[in-house]
Design brief:
By secondary structure, the protein is of the alpha+beta class. The protein contains nine helices and ten strands.
Length: 323
């Protein structure tokens, strides 16, 4: 690749932001105790950056090449699309450079005035085409109902919304070369009355906000679950907030790294295995102890960690259940 003996042709499967805080989910991750809120909804990756019209370092679908490609003669098999039918999208692709190369032709579909909640555009088809210098090839992409359907929460099903959509073909989500408008027809109509305003959550200031997230859940946002009282599904990291739990965590993590043979590894490897062990539920210690730790012993430990000394003593003198 460095000397030009091979030509790169890969495309990015994700968007590279300018900084981590530009990613919509950044402000809600890694989350709180036992709760990670998935607030992006449909606006994941390039869908959010397109909706917010935000600058990015490298867009979704971007890739480099030692040659160049021309897109021309975009044609649709029909001027309109009816639910249950098929649409063929064709174009001519030419390698205008001096070396062989492959291009990934990407087709995005975007609704003009969507009634249903949806991103500005979504990748619906793509094709990788290898071309010699100066070669032109016809490229055809097929679209069916799934390319135009949006999920109607009110109906609980996928609906092809009547209206106009734009067929966009290009080299990335931000490098659209050809566009055409297509009318869509369907016997199904969205459950939400049409209006001229953008769907709720489309505004980049609203995406992921409490009102939008709560509306998507269909209920108030639940509060994070408390780490107390500790139980068998509590992690080593959670019990480490107590003096005894911290001692147990340190010992288990050390033994875990010794067993995995990474005790003397570099800091990054050590940190990774510490996180793996630290997020391990306490019940896993019983399963991986080889019989050295029983569930009864774990229950005694949990009682002590929860400050219930009398329960711990009662468990110690109670015969273990055989069930």
């Amino acid at each position: 690749l460095l000397f030009g003996r091979a030509n790169p042709c890969g495309k990015l499967a994700e968007t590279f932001p300018l900084k981590p805080s530009d990613v919509l989910s950044d402000q809600w991750f890694p989350g709180s105790n036992r709760q990670v809120q998935y607030r992006e909804g449909l606006f994941v990756g390039y869908r959010y950056f397109d909706a917010a019209d935000a600058s990015v370092l490298f867009p979704f679908g971007h890739g480099l090449s030692y040659t160049q490609f021309d897109y021309e003669a975009l044609a649709l098999s029909h001027k309109s699309f009816e639910q249950g039918s098929e649409l063929l999208v064709s174009l001519k692709l030419t390698n205008t450079g001096s070396v062989p190369g492959a291009e990934v032709v990407q087709l995005y579909v975007g609704s003009r005035k969507p009634t249903l909640h949806s991103p500005p555009q979504a990748l619906r088809a793509f094709a990788k085409v290898m071309l010699q210098p100066g070669e032109t090839r016809d490229v055809t992409l097929r679209l069916d109902d799934t390319a135009f359907a949006l999920f109607d929460i009110g109906r609980g099903t996928w609906v092809v919304e009547p209206g106009e959509v734009e067929i966009r073909v290009g080299a990335s989500s931000r490098d659209i070369r050809l566009t055409q408008t297509l009318s869509t027809y369907s016997s199904q109509h969205p459950s939400k009355p049409p209006n001229d305003s953008a769907p709720i959550g489309f505004d980049d200031q609203l995406i992921g906000s409490d009102p939008v997230f709560s509306a998507g859940l269909g209920k108030p946002i639940p509060p994070p679950e408390s780490s107390r009282p500790f139980h068998s599904n509590s992690s080593l990291n959670e019990i480490a907030e107590t003096w005894l739990g911290n001692k147990i965590r340190s010992r288990v993590v050390t033994q875990f790294k010794d067993q995995m043979g990474v005790a003397g590894a570099d800091e990054t490897i050590n940190k990774m295995f510490e996180e793996v062990a630290g997020n391990m539920p306490l019940r896993a210690m019983v399963l991986f102890s080889g019989g050295k730790l029983s569930f009864k012993s774990l229950n005694v430990l949990l009682a002590v960690l929860n400050g219930n000394v009398f329960r711990a003593m009662r468990l110690l003198v109670t015969p273990a259940s055989r069930s």
